[in-house]
Design the sequence.
């Protein structure tokens, strides 16, 4: 028999397929047009040949017998499970007809464009929504509690996001002379040693540990990193903000901060009015005349000093004021006001968190907090890497602010081995996302005023381009201020995955006039659609990945039946719905996105990947010193003051506490002792699985074998107390509902907490309603509410609810 010819296609793993945020280089082995194997690309600088189980199982994924390969149109009642295959032309015409009808009768804002996480969908769903005329692009998680809140919170105080520096900015990685290995990494609520769900490859941290980097692990569970850490802080879930304030308390009291960075690059020297607690700025008081300068009596130097009113930054006047002190400010109108510095107010806030108080809140011993804070602050350089638990609390923004303050005041911001500012490679921002150049956005500012939640929550109006999930679902039922009539769901399965209170989600979808789903498999959410469009995996498409470093392409390796990529589907519908749509081909769109790089899509495909040169705004380090971050080319940060803001100008404008602090979550033994009396265990969820991503992959046999059942981890002493044996089925219940999970008795969790698996449904069971593949039976989201978000609309109490656990009776099995 003749040997088959094998072609090897180098490409970039991103969804659909592995499900995660991707970036890994892979080699797809093709024989006679068919995928036979996927392996890591050893020459790729991101993953250096290492890939996860989900990538290795791609042959089972792309050729799965249950994969949807032609458009499906509902022919029975919604949820009944009766479908008819139709052509793509019929499908596009049907969707166009339905969307145009809603737009004509109710306005384009009445259709919500809902996305999930992990895939390269953000740009393409915006392209379709904006072409249609709707500002309402939505991430289906309550409080948008995944990554966007952290990005917005960090951007609020430092103008850009930043991440752990593991040398990923350089092709030579650890060998590059510009790189310095961090002496210490704080791993905060993250346990991904071998995969890439959060756009940081877990192996990088392991690489650095092998080279001598010490680990501080902050996690209630005994994780891979906790078991290998120099310091393990086993905190109570949801108390991360208090722990960060405790770190700051040690660092300030022991003067372990970088005084030069604090003085030169933060707004610590800026003045705060004593009577209002607000930053002093020109025009703040009636009649101050917006004078060029305030006259300030410098109590430290004992003579007048001059301050610039534009941002109240100290001007050279022969003396430098101390970071702390009282100042009298004489305004042009003649009025005198008493002021202090931002640093002084910051210190006073931090002083509210002595270690004995923090220990009581977090359950971490004070001596352990002190030792960990000292290790972090005295390690040069040091970095912090965090995970989803930071987002999954209503007080996500002040928590993030406190952690960002740590890397700033210790001088670890945008330095080798620290936390490095992260921008799209070459500033090649995908269509419609913030910072994109040349792309058609929303048709008008008036259009954006109809985006649900943008007028209520400051971060949504300023940084986050999405509609507010909880408000959208409520508006489906109320119809106020306008009706919601349709939903386009792409790369998401909220009934089983990221939808809190999933039965409410089901009722909301059933209430709509039109529901379209784009997916690869029949999910419980897809069963409630009117039409399903079959999407392609990453091996069946062309696309761009410019999210951070490097800039690279996704290259098509195979075709599977009639499946189309997300960008192809949305491009065609956008062209039909918008007479002003300006591109003729997807490649034209790609070329425009890549214009800043000086390469076309074809040229980048040929090159493989590209790193921006030193001195480019998307390449490290110390860009704040070089004028590479701000649009005006001046040194500093992209914040209103041009400084890293310990006192947030924007949060002050939004009527929120401007300085980092701690807020007790809404459903804990501390905030709700009445509930804790009946539901005594802290319920944590969302533990990552190496086999699955959110609700994906339960139908892939190789992966299901690795993680076959929905489990709840419970401590041996607690299990013995409750009469629960390892492997027995139990009910996890609270005042909102209950779900059925299999007990895993393990020392990995503390006695006062259980960790429940999320994202479970059973593809092997009946798909039609009411069964919906058993999606409500083991769905931990039935125990988590919507509308429990933070004051700025962000975050959700996903990691720290309350529950009780008891055995399933024989007649319930």
Sequence:
């Amino acid at each position: 028999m003749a040997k088959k010819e094998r072609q090897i296609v180098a490409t970039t793993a991103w969804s659909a397929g592995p499900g995660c945020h991707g970036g890994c280089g892979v080699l797809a082995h093709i024989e006679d047009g068919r995928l036979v194997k996927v392996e890591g690309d050893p020459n790729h600088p991101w993953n250096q040949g290492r890939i996860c189980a989900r990538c290795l199982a791609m042959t089972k994924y792309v050729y799965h017998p249950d994969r949807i390969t032609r458009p499906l149109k509902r022919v029975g009642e919604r949820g009944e499970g009766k479908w008819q295959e139709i052509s793509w032309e019929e499908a596009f015409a049907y969707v166009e007809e339905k969307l145009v009808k809603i737009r004509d009768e109710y306005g384009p804002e009445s259709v919500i464009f809902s996305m999930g996480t992990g895939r390269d969908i953000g740009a393409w769903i915006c392209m379709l929504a904006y072409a249609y005329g709707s500002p309402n692009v939505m991430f289906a998680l309550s409080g948008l509690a995944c990554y966007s809140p952290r990005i917005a919170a960090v951007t609020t105080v430092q103008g850009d996001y930043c991440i752990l520096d593991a040398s990923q900015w350089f092709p030579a990685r650890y060998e590059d002379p510009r790189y310095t290995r961090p002496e210490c990494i704080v791993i905060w609520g993250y346990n991904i040693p071998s995969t890439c769900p959060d756009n940081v490859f877990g192996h990088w941290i392991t690489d650095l540990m092998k080279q001598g980097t010490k680990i501080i692990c902050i996690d209630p569970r005994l994780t891979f990193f906790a078991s290998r850490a120099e310091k393990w802080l086993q905190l109570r879930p949801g108390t991360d903000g208090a722990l960060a304030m405790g770190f700051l308390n040690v660092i300030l009291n022991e003067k372990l901060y970088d005084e030069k960075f604090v003085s030169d690059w933060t707004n610590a020297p800026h003045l705060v009015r004593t009577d209002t607690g607000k930053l002093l700025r020109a025009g703040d008081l009636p009649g101050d005349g917006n004078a060029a300068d305030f006259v300030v009596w410098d109590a430290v130097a004992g003579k007048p000093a001059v301050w610039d009113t534009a941002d109240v930054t100290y001007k050279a006047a022969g003396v430098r004021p101390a970071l702390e002190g009282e100042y009298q400010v004489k305004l042009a109108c003649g009025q005198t006001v008493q002021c202090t510095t931002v640093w002084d107010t910051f210190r006073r806030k931090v002083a509210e968190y002595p270690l004995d108080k923090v220990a009581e809140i977090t359950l971490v011993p004070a001596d352990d907090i002190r030792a960990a804070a000292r290790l972090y602050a005295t390690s040069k350089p040091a970095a912090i890497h965090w995970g989803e638990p930071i987002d999954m609390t209503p007080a996500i923004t002040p928590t993030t602010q406190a952690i960002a303050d740590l890397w700033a005041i210790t001088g670890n911001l945008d330095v080798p081995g620290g936390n490095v500012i992260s921008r799209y490679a070459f500033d090649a921002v995908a269509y419609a996302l913030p910072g994109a150049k040349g792309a058609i956005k929303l048709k008008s500012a008036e259009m954006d005023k109809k985006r649900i939640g943008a007028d209520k929550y400051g971060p949504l109006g300023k940084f986050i381009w999405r509609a507010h999930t909880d408000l959208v679902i409520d508006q489906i039922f109320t119809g106020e201020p306008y009706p919601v009539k349709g939903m386009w769901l792409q790369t998401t399965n909220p009934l089983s995955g990221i939808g809190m209170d999933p039965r409410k989600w089901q009722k909301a979808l059933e209430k709509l006039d039109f529901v379209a789903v784009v997916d690869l498999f029949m999910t419980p959410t897809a069963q409630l659609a009117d039409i399903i469009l079959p999407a392609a995996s990453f091996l069946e498409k062309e696309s761009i990945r410019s999210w951070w470093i490097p800039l690279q392409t996704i290259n098509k390796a195979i075709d599977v039946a009639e499946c189309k990529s997300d960008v192809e589907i949305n491009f065609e519908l956008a062209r039909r719905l918008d007479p002003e749509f300006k591109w003729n081909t997807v490649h034209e769109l790609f070329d425009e996105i890549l214009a800043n790089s000086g390469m076309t899509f074809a040229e980048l495909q040929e090159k493989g990947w590209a790193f921006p040169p030193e001195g480019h705004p998307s390449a490290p380090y110390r860009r704040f010193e070089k004028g590479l971050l701000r649009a005006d080319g001046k040194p500093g940060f992209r914040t209103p003051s041009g400084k890293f803001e310990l006192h947030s100008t924007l949060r002050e404008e939004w009527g929120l506490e401007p300085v980092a602090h701690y807020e007790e979550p809404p459903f804990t033994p501390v905030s709700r002792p009445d509930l804790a009396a009946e539901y005594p265990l802290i319920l944590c969820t969302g533990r990552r699985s190496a086999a699955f991503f959110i609700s994906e992959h339960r139908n892939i046999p190789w992966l299901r074998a690795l993680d076959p059942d929905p489990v709840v981890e419970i401590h041996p002493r607690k299990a013995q107390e409750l009469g629960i044996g390892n492997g027995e089925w139990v009910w996890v219940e609270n005042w909102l509902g209950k779900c059925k999970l299999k007990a895993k008795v393990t020392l990995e969790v503390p006695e006062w907490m259980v960790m429940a698996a999320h994202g479970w449904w059973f593809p092997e069971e009946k798909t039609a309603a009411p069964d919906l593949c058993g999606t409500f039976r083991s769905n931990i989201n039935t125990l988590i509410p919507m509308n429990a978000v933070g004051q700025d609309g962000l975050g959700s109490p996903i990691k720290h609810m309350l529950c009780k656990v008891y055995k399933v009776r024989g007649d319930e099995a």
Q: What stands out?
A: Residues 284-295, 302-320 have pLDDT under 50 and may be disordered. The chain has four domains: 72-146+430-541+563-605, 149-258+348-425, 270-344, 673-812. The longest strand covers residues 737-745.
